[in-house]
Structure formats: C-alpha cells, structure tokens
Amino acid sequence: MINKLIKKIQETEAHLCVGLDPTLKFVPEQIQKETFAAYGETLEGAAEAVWQFNKGIIDATYDLIPAVKPQIAMYEQFGLPGLCAYQKTVDYAQEKGLVVIGDVKRGDIGSTSAAYAVGHLGHVQVGSKKLAGFHEDFITINPYMGSDSVNPFIDICKEEKKGLFILTKTSNPSSGEFQDRLIDGRPLYEWVGEKVADWGRDVMGDGYSYIGAVVGATYPEQGKKLRKLMPNTYILVPGYGAQGGKGEDLAYFFNKDGLGAIVNSSRGIIAAYQQKGYEKYGPENYADASRAAVIAMRDDILQALAKRAG
Question: What is the value of pTM for the model shown?
Fold first, then answer.
C-alpha cells in the first residue's frame, strides 16, 4: 500500500491529504436543512449531513490529491449512524481512487489490539467467510503500550499489504509533557522514532516501509531530527494551516528524493469557505473553496521543496 500511496503522490504532485474531520459547524446550512427535513434533528440526520458534506469535498478534490484522512471520533459522536457515515466516506474515497488513512489512534495489547487491527485493516472470520470491516488502507496507532500493542497491527499489515502511521511526535501543544522527556539524555520521541524505524525494516515497499510515523508540522526541528533517524519511514505530518504549520517549515520532513512525507490539513481545507481569503465562495460553493485551498496548499509545499532542492 505504501507503493500505491507514493505513486498517487507522484501522479498528483501533491504531498498532502485532506483531513475529513467534520463537525456540524463546518457543514453549510443548506445541507443541514435538507438532511434534517428528511431525517429530523436526529443522529441519523446529522450523520447524513456529514456524509453529504464529505461527498461534496471528495468530488471537488479527488483529482488533485492522493489521500484523505477521516478522523473517526468526528463520526463516533453521532453513534451508529455516524459510523455508517464513516464507512460511506471510506468506501466512496476508495471508489474515487484515493488512499484512505483512518485516523483511529488505536493501541492496546494482545487480542484487543489484534481485533482492532482486523476490524480496520484485515478480514474477520464469519462462519466459512472472511469479511472486511472498515477496510482503510492505513490507520494511525498509539505505541505507548510498547511492542505488545504494535505487533498485532504489523502482522495484519504484512498479511494485507496495508500500513500504519505510528504516533511519534504529535502536533498538540502539550505533547512535550511526555514526548520531550529525556531518557538516557535523549527525548522520548527519538526513542519512539528509532523503534518505528526498527519495526518497519521487515515490512518494506520498494523504498519506504509500510510502517510510518506521525510527526507534527508544529515541531519542525524535531521533524528534522526524526527524518534522519527514520530514512525509510514515511511521515504523516498533521498541524498544517489551522495549527500554524507552513510549507517552509516542512521541507526537512522530506528526503532528498522529494518524498518521505505527506502533510495533512483538515479545517484549513474542509472549512475553507469560512476562512479569510475564501469568503467569495460562500456556503453554497463550499466544495469549490476546498478545492482552491488544496491547490494553494499543494503549491506552498512544492515551492518549499523546490527552494530546498535549489
């Protein structure tokens, strides 16, 4: 799957993914009115609004981007109807040829971790059949319970040729409370990065591992260090745009081949119509605003990479 992701990145010249993290405050009023008229002000109505919102964004951007990253919590808040909207989103994005990174941040031990892995990346045995659950292409996981929590996911990745992005240095302001703590003179995130690289050596694509890392755009110096520690690891970079990350901060997250990282933007793209510079689109043309934001982000990253190469 890492080979497919890289091929899509090269075809689109877009080192980015769209974070499909919808809340109702991002969904234009006309969509909410339509779905509430059909389903009432119910969980079903809210979930349908989210799904229609996502569909519009995918339709407007799929030819420009390699991947989307739906955050499952934004769907779980609407209960079972929300999970149905999540599944519809995964299915539709894959139908459009996009790679889907399920931002699920799972992490447990033993049979629990194995069940998470099967549910999101593998096939579960049902009588005489093996059936796929959510079937994302990659998922995010939390490694802080150690190898016991990660190995079941790696086993499924080997079996299914799918991938992981493992939390290493996250973009949130308080991440340093734990991740920057020194252990034998080095921050914890460096130890995790080395372990991610180690886990990935047995699960290689053509040049990069199926096992990637999550490193926030808000910490460019740490990203530069981790890039050196993980030369064959693809890095998922959250924190662009709304959280303050810019293209110029990200050049050293990439390798000299111009690959090695994929940058995520969520609010900056899906809620672009609500932001300065995109007001002209209005709620009715929210998806066109998202398309324009994707183009701007793509060009910002390409400019940063060209500057570094030059």
Answer: 0.95
